[in-house]
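FORM 7B: Structural annotation worksheet

SECTION A. Query
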Amino acid sequence: MTVTDRDRKLLLVVDAPSLLHRSHHARAHTRITDRSGRPAWALEGMVRQILEVIDGFAPDAVVFGLDDRTSSLRRDLYPDYKAGRAEKHPELIDQIDRAGALLDALGMATITPPGLEADDVNASGAAWAGRHGWDCIIITSDRDAFAHISGHTKVLRVINGGISGSPLLNPQRLFAMYGVAADRYLEYAALRGDASDNLPGVNGIGEKTAAILLEHAGPMATVWADIEHNEGLAVVAALDSWAEETGARRVGATVVRRLAAPGARERYDFNVSMMAGREDLDLGLTPDVPGSPGLLPLDPERISKVVGFLNVEATTSLALRVLSADPGFVSSP
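SECTION B. Predicted structure
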Protein backbone atom coordinates (compact mmCIF):
# COMPACT_ATOMS: atom_id res chain seq x y z
CA MET A 1 0.00 0.00 0.00
CA THR A 2 1.36 3.40 -0.93
CA VAL A 3 1.17 6.48 1.28
CA THR A 4 -1.49 7.99 -0.94
CA ASP A 5 -3.64 4.88 -0.48
CA ARG A 6 -3.53 5.12 3.30
CA ASP A 7 -6.89 5.85 4.90
CA ARG A 8 -5.54 6.38 8.44
CA LYS A 9 -3.06 8.98 9.59
CA LEU A 10 0.32 7.81 10.89
CA LEU A 11 2.10 8.79 14.11
CA LEU A 12 5.82 8.10 14.41
CA VAL A 13 7.04 7.71 18.00
CA VAL A 14 10.82 7.86 18.35
CA ASP A 15 12.80 6.50 21.29
CA ALA A 16 15.46 9.21 21.05
CA PRO A 17 17.87 7.86 23.72
CA SER A 18 17.86 4.47 22.01
CA LEU A 19 18.88 5.96 18.66
CA LEU A 20 21.42 8.29 20.27
CA HIS A 21 23.12 5.37 22.02
CA ARG A 22 23.33 3.31 18.85
CA SER A 23 24.50 6.25 16.77
CA HIS A 24 27.17 7.12 19.31
CA HIS A 25 28.70 3.66 19.29
CA ALA A 26 28.40 3.26 15.52
CA ARG A 27 29.68 6.70 14.54
CA ALA A 28 32.10 7.88 17.24
CA HIS A 29 34.98 7.14 14.88
CA THR A 30 33.72 9.89 12.54
CA ARG A 31 34.37 12.61 15.18
CA ILE A 32 31.69 14.78 13.54
CA THR A 33 31.35 18.13 15.31
CA ASP A 34 28.73 20.85 14.97
CA ARG A 35 29.49 24.41 13.94
CA SER A 36 30.44 25.27 17.51
CA GLY A 37 32.98 22.45 17.60
CA ARG A 38 31.03 20.20 20.01
CA PRO A 39 30.58 16.44 19.42
CA ALA A 40 27.62 15.82 17.10
CA TRP A 41 28.00 12.34 15.64
CA ALA A 42 25.22 10.80 17.79
CA LEU A 43 22.87 13.74 17.14
CA GLU A 44 23.55 13.72 13.41
CA GLY A 45 23.18 9.94 13.29
CA MET A 46 19.82 10.07 15.10
CA VAL A 47 18.55 12.82 12.78
CA ARG A 48 19.74 10.91 9.73
CA GLN A 49 17.99 7.73 10.82
CA ILE A 50 14.73 9.55 11.50
CA LEU A 51 14.90 11.25 8.12
CA GLU A 52 15.22 7.84 6.48
CA VAL A 53 12.17 6.59 8.36
CA ILE A 54 10.11 9.68 7.54
CA ASP A 55 11.15 9.42 3.90
CA GLY A 56 9.99 5.80 3.83
CA PHE A 57 6.75 6.04 5.79
CA ALA A 58 5.62 9.68 5.34
CA PRO A 59 4.07 10.10 8.82
CA ASP A 60 1.65 12.89 9.60
CA ALA A 61 3.20 13.59 13.01
CA VAL A 62 6.39 12.71 14.88
CA VAL A 63 6.90 12.58 18.65
CA PHE A 64 10.28 12.09 20.33
CA GLY A 65 10.45 10.52 23.76
CA LEU A 66 13.33 11.38 26.11
CA ASP A 67 14.32 10.02 29.52
CA ASP A 68 14.13 12.18 32.61
CA ARG A 69 17.78 12.14 33.62
CA THR A 70 17.18 13.92 36.93
CA SER A 71 14.83 11.43 38.63
CA SER A 72 13.38 7.95 38.19
CA LEU A 73 10.17 6.63 39.74
CA ARG A 74 11.22 3.10 38.86
CA ARG A 75 14.59 3.50 40.57
CA ASP A 76 12.83 4.92 43.60
CA LEU A 77 10.86 1.67 43.81
CA TYR A 78 13.84 -0.53 42.96
CA PRO A 79 17.27 1.03 43.55
CA ASP A 80 18.97 -1.70 41.50
CA TYR A 81 16.94 -0.83 38.40
CA LYS A 82 19.31 -0.92 35.40
CA ALA A 83 22.24 -1.51 37.75
CA GLY A 84 25.27 -2.98 36.03
CA ARG A 85 24.98 -0.98 32.84
CA ALA A 86 28.21 0.57 31.64
CA GLU A 87 28.72 4.24 32.41
CA LYS A 88 27.85 6.52 29.52
CA HIS A 89 30.74 8.25 27.79
CA PRO A 90 30.82 12.00 28.56
CA GLU A 91 30.59 12.82 24.85
CA LEU A 92 27.39 10.77 24.61
CA ILE A 93 25.93 12.42 27.72
CA ASP A 94 26.64 15.84 26.21
CA GLN A 95 24.72 14.95 23.05
CA ILE A 96 21.83 13.35 24.97
CA ASP A 97 21.50 16.53 27.01
CA ARG A 98 21.35 18.65 23.83
CA ALA A 99 18.94 16.45 21.86
CA GLY A 100 15.71 17.88 23.23
CA ALA A 101 16.68 21.50 22.50
CA LEU A 102 17.76 20.60 18.97
CA LEU A 103 14.51 18.78 18.20
CA ASP A 104 12.39 21.51 19.75
CA ALA A 105 14.20 24.13 17.68
CA LEU A 106 13.49 22.07 14.58
CA GLY A 107 9.74 22.10 15.34
CA MET A 108 9.42 18.49 16.42
CA ALA A 109 7.42 17.45 19.49
CA THR A 110 9.58 16.21 22.38
CA ILE A 111 8.39 14.77 25.67
CA THR A 112 10.51 14.26 28.78
CA PRO A 113 8.00 12.84 31.28
CA PRO A 114 8.93 13.66 34.89
CA GLY A 115 10.44 10.64 36.61
CA LEU A 116 9.78 8.47 33.57
CA GLU A 117 11.41 7.31 30.34
CA ALA A 118 11.11 7.28 26.58
CA ASP A 119 9.52 3.81 27.01
CA ASP A 120 6.53 5.53 28.60
CA VAL A 121 6.24 7.91 25.65
CA ASN A 122 6.22 4.86 23.37
CA ALA A 123 3.31 3.40 25.35
CA SER A 124 1.37 6.66 25.41
CA GLY A 125 1.96 7.19 21.69
CA ALA A 126 0.51 3.80 20.85
CA ALA A 127 -2.46 4.45 23.14
CA TRP A 128 -3.00 7.93 21.64
CA ALA A 129 -3.04 6.48 18.14
CA GLY A 130 -5.59 3.88 19.16
CA ARG A 131 -7.90 6.48 20.71
CA HIS A 132 -7.69 8.82 17.71
CA GLY A 133 -8.01 6.27 14.91
CA TRP A 134 -4.40 6.66 13.76
CA ASP A 135 -1.75 4.08 12.99
CA CYS A 136 1.52 4.19 14.90
CA ILE A 137 5.10 3.10 14.32
CA ILE A 138 7.50 3.06 17.28
CA ILE A 139 11.19 3.46 16.43
CA THR A 140 13.41 1.84 19.06
CA SER A 141 15.98 -0.85 19.76
CA ASP A 142 14.27 -1.75 23.05
CA ARG A 143 12.23 -4.95 23.20
CA ASP A 144 9.91 -3.42 25.83
CA ALA A 145 8.07 -1.69 22.98
CA PHE A 146 6.91 -5.07 21.66
CA ALA A 147 4.18 -4.98 24.32
CA HIS A 148 2.53 -2.14 22.36
CA ILE A 149 2.29 -3.98 19.04
CA SER A 150 -1.30 -4.29 17.88
CA GLY A 151 -3.53 -4.00 14.85
CA HIS A 152 -2.69 -0.29 14.68
CA THR A 153 0.85 -0.17 16.10
CA LYS A 154 4.06 -1.63 14.69
CA VAL A 155 7.61 -1.47 15.99
CA LEU A 156 10.61 -0.74 13.80
CA ARG A 157 13.34 -2.34 15.88
CA VAL A 158 16.62 -0.65 15.06
CA ILE A 159 19.44 -3.18 14.98
CA ASN A 160 22.89 -3.41 13.47
CA GLY A 161 22.69 -2.45 9.82
CA GLY A 162 20.66 0.70 10.35
CA ILE A 163 17.12 1.56 9.38
CA SER A 164 17.10 -0.30 6.06
CA GLY A 165 18.10 -3.53 7.79
CA SER A 166 15.72 -3.22 10.73
CA PRO A 167 12.60 -5.41 11.01
CA LEU A 168 9.14 -3.83 11.10
CA LEU A 169 7.21 -5.97 13.58
CA ASN A 170 3.46 -6.47 13.52
CA PRO A 171 1.53 -9.07 15.57
CA GLN A 172 2.17 -11.81 13.02
CA ARG A 173 5.92 -11.22 12.80
CA LEU A 174 6.21 -10.94 16.57
CA PHE A 175 4.51 -14.32 17.01
CA ALA A 176 6.77 -15.86 14.35
CA MET A 177 9.84 -14.61 16.25
CA TYR A 178 8.86 -15.38 19.84
CA GLY A 179 5.80 -17.61 19.70
CA VAL A 180 3.94 -15.03 21.78
CA ALA A 181 0.79 -13.09 20.95
CA ALA A 182 1.33 -9.34 21.01
CA ASP A 183 -1.27 -8.78 23.74
CA ARG A 184 0.63 -11.22 25.99
CA TYR A 185 4.13 -9.92 25.40
CA LEU A 186 4.21 -8.00 28.70
CA GLU A 187 3.29 -11.18 30.57
CA TYR A 188 5.99 -13.04 28.65
CA ALA A 189 8.60 -10.41 29.54
CA ALA A 190 7.56 -10.40 33.19
CA LEU A 191 8.00 -14.17 33.38
CA ARG A 192 11.31 -14.13 31.52
CA GLY A 193 12.75 -11.05 33.20
CA ASP A 194 14.97 -8.43 31.61
CA ALA A 195 18.71 -8.60 32.26
CA SER A 196 19.30 -5.20 30.65
CA ASP A 197 17.08 -3.58 33.31
CA ASN A 198 18.42 -5.90 36.05
CA LEU A 199 14.99 -7.46 36.54
CA PRO A 200 15.21 -11.21 37.24
CA GLY A 201 12.46 -13.41 35.89
CA VAL A 202 10.43 -16.05 37.70
CA ASN A 203 12.93 -18.67 38.79
CA GLY A 204 13.06 -21.58 36.37
CA ILE A 205 10.82 -19.98 33.72
CA GLY A 206 12.86 -19.10 30.67
CA GLU A 207 11.85 -17.68 27.30
CA LYS A 208 10.78 -20.97 25.72
CA THR A 209 8.78 -22.13 28.73
CA ALA A 210 7.12 -18.73 29.10
CA ALA A 211 6.02 -18.76 25.46
CA ILE A 212 4.63 -22.28 25.69
CA LEU A 213 2.81 -21.50 28.93
CA LEU A 214 1.13 -18.40 27.52
CA GLU A 215 0.21 -20.02 24.23
CA HIS A 216 -1.35 -23.15 25.72
CA ALA A 217 -2.47 -22.22 29.24
CA GLY A 218 -2.54 -18.42 29.34
CA PRO A 219 -3.30 -15.63 29.94
CA MET A 220 -1.50 -15.38 33.25
CA ALA A 221 -4.60 -14.26 35.14
CA THR A 222 -6.08 -17.66 34.26
CA VAL A 223 -2.85 -19.48 35.16
CA TRP A 224 -2.56 -17.82 38.57
CA ALA A 225 -6.23 -18.45 39.32
CA ASP A 226 -5.85 -22.15 38.48
CA ILE A 227 -2.78 -22.45 40.70
CA GLU A 228 -4.53 -20.70 43.58
CA HIS A 229 -7.90 -22.45 43.39
CA ASN A 230 -7.25 -25.72 41.54
CA GLU A 231 -3.66 -26.64 42.47
CA GLY A 232 -2.69 -25.90 38.86
CA LEU A 233 -4.34 -29.03 37.51
CA ALA A 234 -5.75 -27.31 34.42
CA VAL A 235 -2.35 -25.81 33.62
CA VAL A 236 -0.67 -29.20 33.96
CA ALA A 237 -3.30 -30.77 31.71
CA ALA A 238 -2.91 -28.07 29.04
CA LEU A 239 0.87 -28.28 28.96
CA ASP A 240 0.94 -32.08 29.04
CA SER A 241 -1.58 -32.17 26.20
CA TRP A 242 0.75 -29.92 24.18
CA ALA A 243 3.67 -32.23 24.99
CA GLU A 244 1.73 -35.28 23.86
CA GLU A 245 0.75 -33.62 20.58
CA THR A 246 4.27 -32.44 19.79
CA GLY A 247 6.31 -35.28 21.25
CA ALA A 248 8.00 -32.88 23.66
CA ARG A 249 8.92 -33.65 27.24
CA ARG A 250 6.13 -33.16 29.76
CA VAL A 251 6.73 -30.00 31.75
CA GLY A 252 3.32 -29.22 33.25
CA ALA A 253 3.99 -30.32 36.82
CA THR A 254 7.42 -28.68 36.85
CA VAL A 255 6.07 -25.36 35.57
CA VAL A 256 3.27 -25.31 38.15
CA ARG A 257 5.72 -26.14 40.93
CA ARG A 258 7.97 -23.21 39.89
CA LEU A 259 5.06 -20.81 39.62
CA ALA A 260 3.72 -21.90 43.01
CA ALA A 261 7.10 -21.44 44.69
CA PRO A 262 7.40 -18.72 47.36
CA GLY A 263 8.03 -15.34 45.80
CA ALA A 264 7.18 -16.37 42.22
CA ARG A 265 3.89 -14.48 42.02
CA GLU A 266 5.42 -11.46 43.73
CA ARG A 267 8.33 -11.42 41.27
CA TYR A 268 5.95 -11.62 38.31
CA ASP A 269 3.68 -8.84 39.59
CA PHE A 270 6.66 -6.62 40.39
CA ASN A 271 8.08 -7.10 36.89
CA VAL A 272 4.74 -6.21 35.33
CA SER A 273 4.59 -3.01 37.38
CA MET A 274 8.14 -2.05 36.36
CA MET A 275 7.85 -3.01 32.69
CA ALA A 276 4.40 -1.63 31.89
CA GLY A 277 4.64 1.70 30.08
CA ARG A 278 2.46 4.63 31.10
CA GLU A 279 -0.31 5.12 28.56
CA ASP A 280 -1.76 8.39 29.88
CA LEU A 281 0.99 10.93 29.12
CA ASP A 282 -0.09 14.13 27.39
CA LEU A 283 1.71 14.12 24.03
CA GLY A 284 0.70 17.69 23.32
CA LEU A 285 -0.36 16.79 19.80
CA THR A 286 -2.97 19.06 18.21
CA PRO A 287 -3.52 17.66 14.72
CA ASP A 288 -6.25 20.23 14.01
CA VAL A 289 -3.80 23.13 14.50
CA PRO A 290 -1.51 23.41 11.45
CA GLY A 291 2.10 24.14 12.28
CA SER A 292 1.93 22.95 15.88
CA PRO A 293 4.93 20.94 17.19
CA GLY A 294 5.22 17.45 15.82
CA LEU A 295 3.17 17.97 12.67
CA LEU A 296 4.78 17.70 9.26
CA PRO A 297 5.89 19.42 7.08
CA LEU A 298 8.28 21.83 8.83
CA ASP A 299 9.49 25.32 8.01
CA PRO A 300 12.43 25.14 5.56
CA GLU A 301 14.32 28.03 7.13
CA ARG A 302 14.22 26.30 10.53
CA ILE A 303 15.34 23.04 8.96
CA SER A 304 18.23 24.77 7.22
CA LYS A 305 19.36 26.56 10.36
CA VAL A 306 18.93 23.74 12.89
CA VAL A 307 20.06 20.72 10.87
CA GLY A 308 22.69 22.84 9.17
CA PHE A 309 24.22 23.51 12.60
CA LEU A 310 25.15 19.82 12.74
CA ASN A 311 27.58 20.63 9.94
CA VAL A 312 26.85 17.74 7.54
CA GLU A 313 25.65 19.14 4.23
CA ALA A 314 24.21 15.86 2.96
CA THR A 315 22.02 15.54 6.06
CA THR A 316 20.79 19.12 5.72
CA SER A 317 19.86 18.51 2.08
CA LEU A 318 18.04 15.31 2.99
CA ALA A 319 16.19 17.09 5.80
CA LEU A 320 15.02 19.84 3.47
CA ARG A 321 13.76 17.29 0.97
CA VAL A 322 12.01 15.08 3.51
CA LEU A 323 10.70 17.54 6.09
CA SER A 324 10.04 20.74 4.18
CA ALA A 325 6.88 22.07 2.59
CA ASP A 326 9.27 23.63 0.07
CA PRO A 327 11.76 20.88 -0.88
CA GLY A 328 13.27 23.23 -3.46
CA PHE A 329 14.39 25.62 -0.73
CA VAL A 330 18.09 26.43 -0.98
CA SER A 331 19.83 26.70 2.36
CA SER A 332 22.19 29.55 3.03
CA PRO A 333 25.80 28.69 3.91
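SECTION C. Observations
Strands lie at 10-15, 61-65, 109-111, 135-140, 153-157, 168-169, 193-194, 199-200. The longest strand covers residues 10-15.

SECTION D. Sign-off
Analyst initials: ____
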